[in-house]
């Protein structure tokens, strides 16, 4: 489902200082806000599903308002502009936008939103529009990493601080933008490998359903998975790597070819939930039983977690799309004049047989 | 010696190219079958042939409509969008039962086909431009109707996607019946001859008093309906409606199947058997590369080579 690139390039292992505590404090209120959101959507309460930050590393870079050159303001009276990259056509984007909206509502902050519909030129003009409409602060989910100069100059001229979420832009932190908040995709791959090793017993042949080619999410989720397999379970062999383009139908078709040419396959690592669900459809169609082939996926959508409950999927590594609380907390801390980390890496959770049933309400 | 070779080459080449255009696609399919039997483990099995046939069935169905359109010297880029639209509409109306949903799907598809046909036949817009508009607009509409993938749990739809008669899946039966039907229309009916005459020369067909506009509009409507059938079948097989990615690049797969199958883009001739074989050829090629775990980019390059070879052979025929 997540066909196009929507995830960031992680260049550095980040660290976090003041944020972790601040976020922990807002956690309770956050869950409440998502309760409210659930009334008009299908998604039920997502208590405990808020993003958490990984343990900060000492010496990680921070950013303060003086160094950035902006002016202090009270977030409550500010207008925040949010530029979304892709249309809300997949669970990740839907949950991401909803989280930003909910958090703005909860804090009583005026929010302006725009959606670039996967067109980068539109995103550039979207952000310029947001600035023209009087946004004091910007939250951007960038479609591309490059090409942001015109926007950055316009924002700098107005001294508008920018936080980017889920994808990094190629620019200087604390000069062109304040902070970048995202998951660590290599780590997601490693954790998927851990689940695969556990599910298969660390022996046999496994396949990878790759995401779209040329996408950093694909590259990083593959890298982490292979690294961890090589390091921890050398007897587990990756014998098949084909792209499923992050789409369910393609995942189904590729898996159908796979299970016929390699009937002895023990496990399938799908780099997103949709391809994993496609693999489940293929296995069902071939008359396999739940658990015959171990499937591990990344994302944490409700359908995939339900797949664990039903026994078809062994594990799901979450990629948490709920950026609202962290993004607004970062902006609040920053505009108060305190330091914020330049890179904020999210601690993603995971689902397996032991917690899928009890925690499915956290899935998006 | 060298001179003799030079003199005989042009003649031989023309003959080879002509043979290639007519039978090349079958030779290609046969070659891939033989090669796979030798090098691909578990290739010679009923399940494998079933998988390949089921996967290629929607492509064949779309390609049938595309062949008709190309026969009129047109092209229809909106088929993938129509598949997505069919998926969305199926999901929306499935609550009323499968048949009512299929009727609404047919209405939507006919509307798209009508719009395409009207733009081409009445307004005189180039087919590539007219259908490009519907390609973009159709998928947009599909996403407005159903913004994200939706799982479908309807027993009749599920059995349409995975059921069979005497071991032959419905998908394959439907594709086969439609192929025979379309081939019959092209070869044995007045409509078929009119279609080819228009593709040969639209002004001549007009002067001869053929109902050019009506035939063109019907052809585009039929093409859209076939794409909708493919969209419903793919949705039934997936048991989910996925308007975001269903039918993506299907227009290219269909055009490839038609061209590789020996139907010239210049219109006036339609080769249905070749179109089916063309779709099967691409399917087997893709399957071979996937089964041997070759990099996905190779599949695209291999397809490109097949297309260039087919177009080259067609060029030889045109010069004859």
Automatic annotation (TrEMBL), chain A:
Signal peptide region: 1-29
Supply the Gene3D superfamilies for this chain.
Answer: 3.40.50.2300
The record's comment on protein family reads: Belongs to the bacterial solute-binding protein 2 family.
| Subcellular compartments | Cell envelope
Source taxon at top rank = Bacteria
Tell me the organism.
Streptomyces lanatus
| Keywords, sorted A to Z | Signal
Principal localisation: other
| One Pfam short name | Peripla_BP_4
Q: Where is this region: Disordered?
A: 32-59
Statement: the UniProt record of this protein carries the keyword 4Fe-4S = no
Q: Which SUPFAM superfamilies match?
A: Periplasmic binding protein-like I (SSF53822)
Q: What is this protein called?
A: ABC transporter substrate-binding protein
Q: Where is the Periplasmic binding protein domain?
A: 89-330
From TrEMBL, chain B:
Q: Which PANTHER family match?
A: ABC TRANSPORTER PERMEASE PROTEIN YPHD-RELATED-RELATED (PTHR32196), GALACTOFURANOSE TRANSPORTER PERMEASE PROTEIN YTFT (PTHR32196:SF19)
Q: Is rRNA processing set as a keyword in this record?
A: no
Topology in the lipid bilayer is annotated as: Multi-pass membrane protein
- Offer one Pfam family short name for this entry: BPD_transp_2
- Name its cellular compartments: Cell membrane
The principal location of this protein is: membrane
Regions that span the bilayer:
23-43, 49-70, 77-96, 167-186, 215-234, 296-314
Protein name, entry field: ABC transporter permease
Keyword Transmembrane helix attributed: yes
Q: Which UniProt keywords apply?
A: Cell membrane, Membrane, Transmembrane, Transmembrane helix
């Amino acid at each position: 489902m997540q066909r196009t690139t929507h995830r960031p390039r992680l260049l550095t292992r980040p660290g976090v200082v003041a944020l972790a505590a601040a976020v922990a404090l807002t956690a309770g209120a956050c869950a409440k806000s998502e309760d409210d959101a659930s009334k008009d959507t299908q998604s039920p309460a997502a208590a405990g599903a808020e993003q958490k930050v990984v343990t900060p590393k000492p010496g990680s870079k921070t950013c303060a308002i003086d160094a950035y050159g902006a002016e202090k303001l009270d977030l409550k009276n500010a207008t925040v502009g949010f530029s979304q990259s892709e249309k809300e056509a997949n669970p990740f984007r839907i949950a991401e936008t909803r989280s930003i909206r909910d958090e703005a509502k909860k804090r009583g902050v005026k929010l302006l939103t725009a959606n670039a519909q996967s067109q980068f030129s539109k995103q550039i003009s979207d952000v310029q529009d947001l600035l023209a409409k009087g946004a004091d602060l910007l939250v951007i989910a960038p479609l591309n990493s490059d090409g942001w100069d015109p926007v950055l100059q316009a924002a700098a001229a107005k001294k508008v601080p920018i936080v980017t979420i889920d994808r990094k832009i190629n620019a200087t932190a604390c000069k062109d933008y304040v902070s970048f908040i995202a998951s660590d995709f290599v780590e997601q791959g490693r954790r998927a490998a851990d689940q695969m090793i556990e599910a298969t017993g660390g022996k046999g042949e496994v396949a990878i359903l790759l995401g779209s080619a040329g996408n950093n999410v694909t590259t990083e989720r593959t890298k982490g998975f292979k690294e961890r397999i090589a390091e921890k379970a050398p007897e587990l062999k990756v014998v098949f790597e084909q792209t499923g383009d992050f789409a369910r139908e393609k995942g189904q078709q590729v898996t159908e070819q796979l299970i016929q040419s390699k009937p002895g396959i023990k496990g399938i690592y799908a780099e997103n939930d949709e391809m994993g669900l496609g693999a489940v459809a293929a296995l069902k169609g071939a008359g396999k039983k739940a658990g015959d082939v171990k499937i591990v996926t990344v994302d944490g959508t409700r359908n995939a977690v339900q797949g664990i409950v039903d026994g078809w999927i062994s594990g799901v590594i979450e990629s948490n799309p709920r950026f609202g609380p962290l993004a607004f907390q970062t902006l609040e801390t920053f505009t108060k004049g305190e330091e914020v980390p330049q890179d904020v890496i999210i601690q993603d959770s995971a689902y397996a047989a032991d917690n899928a049933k009890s925690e499915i309400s956290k899935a998006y | 010696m060298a001179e003799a070779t030079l003199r005989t080459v042009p003649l031989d080449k023309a003959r080879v190219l002509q043979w290639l255009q007519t039978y090349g696609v079958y030779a290609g399919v046969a070659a891939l079958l033989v090669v796979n039997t030798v090098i691909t483990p578990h290739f010679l099995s009923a399940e494998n042939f079933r998988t390949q046939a089921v996967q290629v069935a929607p492509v064949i169905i779309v390609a049938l409509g595309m062949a008709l359109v190309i026969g009129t010297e047109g092209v229809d880029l909106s088929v993938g969008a129509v598949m997505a639209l069919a998926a969305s509409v199926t999901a929306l109306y499935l609550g009323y039962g499968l048949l009512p949903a299929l009727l609404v799907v047919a209405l939507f598809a006919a509307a798209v086909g009508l719009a395409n046909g009207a733009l081409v036949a009445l307004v005189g817009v180039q087919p590539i431009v007219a259908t490009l508009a519907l390609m973009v607009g159709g998928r947009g509409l599909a996403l407005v109707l159903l913004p994200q993938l939706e799982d479908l749990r309807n027993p009749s739809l599920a059995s349409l996607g995975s059921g069979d008669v005497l071991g032959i899946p419905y998908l394959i039966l439907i594709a086969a019946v439609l192929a025979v039907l379309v081939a019959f229309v092209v070869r044995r009916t007045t409509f078929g001859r009119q279609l080819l005459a228009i593709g040969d020369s639209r002004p001549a067909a007009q002067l001869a008093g053929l109902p050019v506009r009506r035939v063109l509009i019907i052809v585009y409507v039929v093409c859209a309906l076939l794409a909708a059938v493919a969209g419903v079948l793919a949705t039934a097989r997936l048991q989910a409606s996925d308007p975001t990615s269903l039918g993506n690049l299907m227009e290219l797969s269909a055009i490839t199947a038609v061209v590789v199958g020996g139907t010239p883009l210049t219109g006036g001739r339609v080769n249905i058997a070749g179109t089916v074989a063309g779709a099967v050829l691409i399917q087997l090629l893709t399957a071979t590369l996937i089964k041997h775990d070759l990099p996905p980019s190779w599949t695209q390059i291999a397809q490109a080579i097949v297309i260039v070879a087919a177009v080259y052979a067609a060029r030889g025929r045109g010069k004859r």
